[in-house]
Amino acid sequence: MKSFPWSLLYCASLLLSDVLGTYHLNAGDPHLIAAQSYAQTRNNGRPPLRTLNPAKTDSQCRSRPLDLVFIIDSSRSVRPGEFEKVKIFLADMVDTLVVGSEATRVAVVNYASTVKIEFLLKDHFNKPDMKKAISRIEPLAAGTMTGLAIKTAVNEAFTEQSGARPRSRNISKVAIIVTDGRPQDQVEEVSATARASGIEIYAVGVDRADMRSLQLMASIPLEDHVFYVETYGVIEKLTSKFRETLCGLDPCAIGHDCEHICVNSNASYYCKCRNGYILNADKKTCSLKQVKVEVVEDPCKCEARLAFQKQTQAAIQQLTAKIERLENMVGRA
């Protein structure tokens, strides 16, 4: 029984090392990359729990701003008709997002033996242009260099020069990988590097996709980041799942303390007042604006009043003088 506390202490130290390794090391640190890979390996034993029976999306769900990069496999194993299904999936995904320079930005990385960036995060800020660019994508054929595609996305698509927002903006960076095969290069380390830099990775496997590789690429928890469909014919059904996964709840819709108007601000909110009111120091309640009334005398009225006063005083003086004369006449009599 003495060994039980020591076993418990050892397990706790392992968990603590995971936490310290993940949250207190800088992006790019080899120890952080190793910690990411180790944590990922420990979770790879659990099969993905996602299914293709998506629940109805919450009406309070709204697309949160993202820097979103699709990494799509167009190797020889993906037939032309199947690749068209992938493009339809991308277009449907764009339709579910709030797209714009201050909302979600989208890029597409196409890969096979080589990698081609179809468009960058800074290229299109409206849905029609984005969907036209998607419709023009052609398959590259040949091999499946998934690791190279992830590395290209990190080094070229998720940069500020390519349209990614700076880290200070706290905009989530998300990569969605769609593949139907086994990578012909190494994916574990390059995926760990991407995750360590702050990129959340979703892995979508189709048909012959290698589940082990999907698990090595995706962020944890795996049940939230690994998806599998049997054919490209049903990949469009994942759209509603991703809408639910990528959305953010509108804090104004789920409850707020504002007396008048609640304004959504990404993950938070702030209060505003209706016209004629000002926000109090508590930043929640409102008070009527104090209207300062300044009375300006009409100079014409002032002059008229002065003239009336002078006339009245003159009339009183005349009347007083008459009364005095009458009193004097009565006194003499």
TrEMBL record:
Domain of life: Eukaryota
Pfam families linked to this entry: cEGF (PF12662), Matrilin_ccoil (PF10393), VWA (PF00092)
Protein localization: Secreted
SMART domains attached to this UniProt entry: EGF (SM00181), EGF_CA (SM00179), Matrilin_ccoil (SM01279), VWA (SM00327)
Keyword hit for Kinase: no
InterPro entries hit by this protein: cEGF, ECM_Assembly_Org, EGF, EGF-like_Ca-bd_dom, EGF-type_Asp/Asn_hydroxyl_site, Matrilin_CC_sf, Matrilin_CC_trimer, VWF_A
Domain annotation VWFA: ranges: 67-242
Any one GO molecular-function label of the UniProt entry: calcium ion binding
Position of the signal peptide: 1-21
GO cellular component, one term: extracellular region
Keywords associated with the record: Disulfide bond, EGF-like domain, Repeat, Secreted, Signal
Boundaries of every EGF-like domain copy: 248-287
SUPFAM superfamilies: Chicken cartilage matrix protein, EGF/Laminin, vWA-like
Main location: secreted
Disulfide bonds: C252-C262
Keyword Glycoprotein annotated: no
Designated name of the protein: Matrilin 3a
Source organism of this protein record: Seriola lalandi dorsalis
Lineage: Eukaryota, Metazoa, Chordata, Craniata, Vertebrata
